[in-house]
Specification:
- Four copies of one chain form a homotetramer.
- Chain A is of the alpha/beta class and about 425 residues long.
- Chain A has a single domain, classed as TIM Barrel (Alpha-Beta Barrel).
- Helix content of chain A is about 50%, strand content about 10%.
- Chain A has 15 helices and 13 strands.
- In chain A, the strands form four sheets. A six-stranded parallel beta sheet of chain A has the order 6-7-9-11-12-13.
- In chain A, α5 (about 150-170) links the parallel β6 and β7.
- The radius of gyration of chain A is 22 Å and the shape is globular.
- Chains A and D meet through α6, α7, α8, α9 and α11 of A and α6, α7, α8, α9 and α11 of D.
- Chains A, B, C, D: One of its GO terms (molecular function) is isomerase activity.
């Protein structure tokens, strides 16, 4: 299943007039206010978010999983799916692999396929939260933090192997999400677990190519329900600092305690030059892994406001690895990802409309009402025409969900792959 | 301080052209999609929210309070302030009094003043969470739920007195917010406290005029930090049912545990015909009493989506008493209230854009992606021109915050009242 | 694997002297304070908690599952496991089955086995949160609340079938945990979902034998992450009231939003005669399903304090169905259950030590400090000798965990069943 | 009001026999298990907690305050109150002053009084969250983080003044609790606020005597309800590291988001040698400032388990400044403090009963059940006789609350001071 340029061209024809009308009107309004519309559209076009390979099939909970149909069952098919997303949205130009689920059998063929679809290999992910069939040691009681040296070594070696795989594909960063922790008080010695983790990460760090980054994810709970070794940004940063200049903190939106102010975390990490990556999703209760922007779109905008600020004002911080990390329990995974990509573009576009000079002046004057007016003024703007334009400029479709449906993508995938395929993942 | 029609006329002249341009464009787009723009604008014009008399001065926390200036120190001045709000926004056509802070000395004069400003007296509020100077009994350990009959009787009598005051002014409902509860395990017998409360409410209910409603508010914590007698909607509803047909539950947005799904509560209460009132504010952590829409505007929209549904589909539910219940710790209270009123209108307007038929069809088909598209499609629309139009139609200003500032309202109030006035309230 | 009376007799011999010494001392102290020690011990002996059949194997999370060994793979083996628990603790005299996981092939044989182990069949559980292999309809978008009549009917019929199975075994109540809800705003019409649920429950209720109870569980989230149809006790109670006198609310400790005051819910439900069942577990973040008492033992004590109060003062409330509902992700399930049973007995024993007359007097006098002293005085008492005595009186062991290990129970089970068995469950 | 040695002696006579009986029995049991009872008792005796001067009067909420009676209205009277607490409990041998509420008029006299009561001056606290009458600049929009240099300088100077006052009294540390933050998105530039804070703290640090410590407190929210500059331990630690070796993080139990694992924070900070102080209280919802141990005593025990571990294993971490930081809204403040002191001693005593060697072995073996048994075994022990003994050894009373009441302390204080005194504080 591939979406052709002709299909897209034909599809766009129908909506073009209305799009142009709306864009022209909006651009007129924005230009009057001093915005450089072309520059905003160009930034939107450039913004690319990685799709994780495990998000292309249906997700589930501990209570069960309801299959979707036509899921990709090989790495090739996963990349095909990302290709479909990218051809429609033009913002999904990267894939993030998960090892051992995605070990390529033929590296050259995989790279060629990805190249042909204009897809890069972004951060690669290791897995030490599950036992593999042939594994000598079990991660039941932890991996990088385990009290057993043999288990730690197995986990370290796995990460080193993952780096090698990523290196062959052109990845430039390794993301470590460590599920290690404890389910009950007393189970862990916090200090030992932390020091073991630090030492293990240092060993992994030593195997990192010079132009790579190590991204250390944090999470307060789940799958461990009493403590997690890397419970928050403070712990992640401490460990990153303990590794070296190429180690960074990775923020996943769903990995916070209730009511956390995530935008402040993002801002301070950028100030320190230590924000390395960002995982998008949304949630109401815990790490719900819902579609980006489906629950708290204003919070997402506020976070983007800080990210934009950092991108413009914090040269000490590197370029970020952006990725969607959601689970698709009841929606078609590809439709769900399209909705996420749109929500990300929307938040980014609105953040780009914030007049940073005006805001700074209002902040200096402690004009709190004005500060709010400025942020809300940007947020209340309907930026959909700008996003459509950004897509059109690079060959995408005006309305990706609509196009996906009118192209019968899922039906085609089922025809090709059958109904009862199951993608690797959660 | 009064804002004159001439001022408003002159002010609107400047912005009218741009407003009309935006409205025309938006109305065109909406009409194409099948919306009846005039009807939406008319509903927006009709929607009136009560301003609580205690919200016209600066609020504070237990750590202190920073005064604003020119605060109203009499009931007359409070009504003047609401008059200013209403003349600008045309959506603040009611005031909600709090007794004993607002006992009128001259009822006829107060009513005349309110009439002249087109302001109604909405739900009236009792206060049994603080001791009054001349009070015989103390509410330190509760009022309507107290183990002491004398204390309960004093609290009941106070509520009956409040009804009488409200009756003279034209109010049609009494709001009871009961702070009663406990700070420590064991302090209260939950069952005794609940039954005392039920009996006290029944005694108050007996004193209710036939055309009045009793609105019972709930709140999980604060000022009591272990338990609150009316901790949630379930307890409130039970008590309302125990009183009779004129008793209803009142929902305050900030009175919920973290992550509550408030829109579902609102919906089920309407289904049962028992949602009587609604207090607007916003919050990130607890009962933060921030400006409406300043933290979670999408949640507010989702709530309005249910409210609109109920207004259209639940004739068993009465008209609601709408009120802003926020605290203004660092903003000019009047500016803060204007921002709240705008956020309410915005959420309402967007909810009116939800195509309920399409939504119902998508729900029936379990097309979750489509359901989300429909809601987000409405939410992403920039409805500001509609709100401006609704204001213009009834004599308000295009941009209330901007007008408030250009009319130098606060400066005038300070001139009239002095800097160091303090309004009664929290 | 069965634990024999002889094993127990021999085991107890060793610890008896020290036990007696501690019991005598404690009994002396308690008697001096006016407690009737024999009566407390007798109440502890009588208190029996059902073991759910699905809790005898290892649980997991969406991220994976680490097997334990020697898990029961048939209903017979599950009952054997409960038999082991009961022989050691003498407080696990019931089992709670889950259909379709536990449909007996030979009812007479199963009943005989349970009888021989002194185990009753307590509340039986239906499952409409997963699809069964041969099912015509899918519960992906809900069961009792589904918009499709055919799906609702399948779910109703399943519950009616479950009642029949339970009836043959001697169960007297059906527990309905309804996972139905939505993952995204707009997905559900709250009112339709609620009404469908009410109607479906009424249909199930009609099939309930006269001496049965319908227990309606509530839960705020998971597996649905935006809304759950029966989100809290208020919704559950409304539905129970809509069914009739034999329908009750069931409280599961882990099914609450952060910071909920569960003891107050329990108390008010008993006041209204509507608390039907109780599921024990513990949690720090969400529905973590950890060992009872492992995280918040004082909260458990406070809840038991209300339960004891209700049992003594609320004849309007029926006897409760008690059950452990925990998941055993990293502990031996049987050891985990023993620790839970001990924690329950401990909380119950401490609650029995609260002097209700003194407490009532202190409450009446608003002597908050004294109220706390009374509760903490009971809680700080080391009641382990009382629990040991209660077990010894009915044939159990002094120290169940220790005995379990010294009898090599797990090793025996592995010998009998093999290592790689997997129990049905989550 | 002073409690005399004779009063104490007479009081203790009555309870001594029963105390001795219980202690002997417990000591026998503990000794059998290998515990060194004398050493535990001695550690309990040595453990001293500072009483904050502002906690000796009734506290309140933004909704009001109910006075207690006989509150201390001068610094002398406050120290008298601490003297009473210390004479009864022998664990309150320090006071923590708050400037400007407690500026001594006569340093020599104040020191002499404190000396005579055996009370030390522990960490001294600055206040930049309220405006003082004669202040030139307002802290409405922040102090150390303010965008205005003049305001920052005033706040820095205040802290330097506080150091000087503390120095004259023998204090050795300054605690900075910074309320700075924002109530609305956009109000603050997070990075500017953070950098201003860092720079201000460095300026204060420069004024610190060589043998002093700077303790930096964190808090996620309140009085600011959108963001707080020092929102968590990660931010506090970053700032402390930015100051130097004498700067440390201070943990207040109530200053965390829901469900935080505080014991892990405490443990990791000790590992890094950066835990400087600890504020005790308890809470169910937010920063409720309830009596220590009144809501989550097991969590307190778990925290003490880490503190004890750190005191024994982390020489890199300094001695901690211990303080109670609770608010007394409905209890007699002195009784409330006594209950807090007892809860602290209880948690400490139980933590001292944890067999660290056994625990470590069980952790190494991943025997999670055993780990829990070890912690719960210690926690379930009734340690009250040990605490009584610790008090008796140093001249305190067996039962402080009981003694306080039988000595009629409050009545005496009212006689001396009158009913309507009001202590400075919140």
């Amino acid at each position: 299943m591939k979406v052709s340029k002709e299909q897209i061209f034909e599809y766009n024809k129908k909506g073009l007039e209305n799009h142009t009308e709306k864009l022209d009107f909006l651009a007129g309004q924005l230009t009057k206010k001093g915005h450089d519309v072309a520059s905003i559209v160009s930034k939107l076009s450039e913004f690319q978010v990685a799709i994780p390979s495990w998000a292309l099939g249906a997700g589930g909970t501990r209570f069960g999983r309801f299959s979707h149909f036509g899921e990709p069952s090989t790495l090739e098919q996963k990349i095909d799916d990302v290709g479909v997303l990218h051809s429609l949205t033009q913002t999904a130009g990267a894939v993030s692999l998960h090892i051992p689920w995605d070990v390529p059998s033929d590296y050259a063929a995989i790279k060629e396929k990805a190249d042909s679809l204009n897809i890069k290999f972004d951060a690669i992910n290791s897995n030490t939260f599950q036992d593999q069939k042939d594994a000598k040691e079990s991660y039941k009681f932890g991996s990088l933090s385990n009290t057993s040296q043999a288990i730690r070594e197995q986990a370290i070696q796995h990460n080193l192997d993952v780096i090698k795989i990523g290196d062959k594909l052109g990845s430039k960063s390794l993301t470590v999400w460590l599920a290690d922790g404890s389910c009950f008080p007393g189970q862990n010695n916090f200090q030992t677990a932390f020091q073991n983790t630090q030492n293990s990460l240092i060993d992994i760090y030593k195997g990192l190519p010079d132009d790579w980054k190590l991204l250390i994810e944090y999470k307060p709970f789940e799958p461990n329900f009493y403590s997690t070794v890397i419970q928050d940004w403070g712990a992640s940063l401490m460990l990153a600092n303990g590794c070296g200049d190429k180690a960074f903190t990775l923020v996943d939106l769903g990995h916070h305690l209730p009511n956390s102010n995530i935008e402040q975390i993002v801002s301070i990490l950028q100030l320190k030059g230590k924000l390395g990556g960002f995982h998008f999703n949304d949630s109401k209760y815990g790490d719900d892994d819902l579609t980006v922007g489906s629950i708290k779109p204003y919070a997402l905008f506020l976070i983007f406001n800080e990210l934009v600020y950092g991108m413009e004002n914090n040269p000490q911080n590197p370029d970020l690895a952006w990725m969607i990390d959601a689970s698709h329990n009841i929606k078609d995974p590809l439709e769900d990802l399209i909705q996420s990509l749109e929500a990300i573009q929307e938040a980014y576009a609105k953040a780009l409309l914030v007049d940073q000079n005006l805001l700074r002046a209002a902040q200096e004057a402690n004009d709190v009402v004005k500060c709010q007016e400025i942020l809300q003024g940007a947020y209340r703007t309907d930026v959909r025409p700008l996003i459509e334009k950004a897509r059109l400029n690079t060959g995408g479709v005006i309305s990706p969900i609509n196009a996906y449906r009118s192209f019968n993508v899922r039906e085609e995938l089922i025809k090709e792959r059958g109904r009862n395929t199951v993608a690797t993942g959660l």
